[in-house]
Design goal:
This protein has 202 residues and is of the alpha+beta class. It contains five helices and five strands, in the order αααββαβαββ.
């Protein structure tokens, strides 16, 4: 952009300089050595940042032997897979099973280990692995060392919280299975976990 002819001042012949666009002059001024803009650009090119930079990756356990079904079509399928893992444990353990859009398992994660009667679980710990695996949905499973799979008020509150977080993230909670000795309780078998929640067959 050039200055208007009406507002341009006439310089003596020996001091006349070529006029450059305002944008060019601004660029020259802001890119001077030591200026904030130039310093930021130089740091970016050199990989220098004001905050730490991280690369996120997911690593499969070396000793992992994941022999799951080709597809989970009911809560009984989940129970049959996890009963040998969860039964006869002296403390509560919570696992997450991650599935693709066809409900084919793509991985599982031991989310938390609790005490004899409780496990403290936050949704971010459940969904951290689900996001990295690009899971379409998940099933959470935990055991009751007492052998009675009847859900506690805390189990119901956790189910609601995980289901609501899944709705927000677009990773649906398909079921929450509580395993006891020789029997289990499925939240999905007792009604939808959320409005428009998917089922094992949908």
């Amino acid at each position: 952009i050039y200055a208007s002819q009406a507002t341009r001042r006439t310089s003596p012949p020996d001091r006349v300089a070529s006029r450059k666009p305002a944008c060019a002059r601004t660029h020259r001024l802001t890119m001077r050595r030591g200026s904030p803009v130039k310093t930021a650009l130089d740091q970016h090119q050199l990989g220098i940042y004001d905050v730490p930079r991280y690369t996120i990756s997911l690593i499969k356990e070396a000793a992992s032997t994941f022999h799951a079904k080709t597809r989970y079509q009911s809560s009984e399928d989940v129970y049959r897979y996890f009963k040998d893992i969860c039964e006869n444990q002296d403390r509560e353990h919570l696992y997450a099973l991650f599935l693709d859009t066809k409900h084919v398992p793509i991985g599982m994660n031991h989310v938390a280990m609790g005490t004899l009667s409780t496990t403290i679980v936050h949704p971010r710990e459940v969904f951290k692995c689900a996001i990295l695996l690009n899971a379409a949905c998940l099933v959470i499973v935990h055991n009751h060392p007492s052998g009675d799979p009847s859900p506690s008020p805390e189990d119901r509150a956790l189910t609601t919280r995980i289901a609501e977080a899944g709705q927000l993230l677009g990773i649906a909670l398909l079921d929450h299975v509580v395993i006891g000795n020789g029997r289990y309780f499925s939240f999905a078998d007792h009604g939808p976990l959320t409005q428009h929640a998917p089922t094992y067959t949908s």
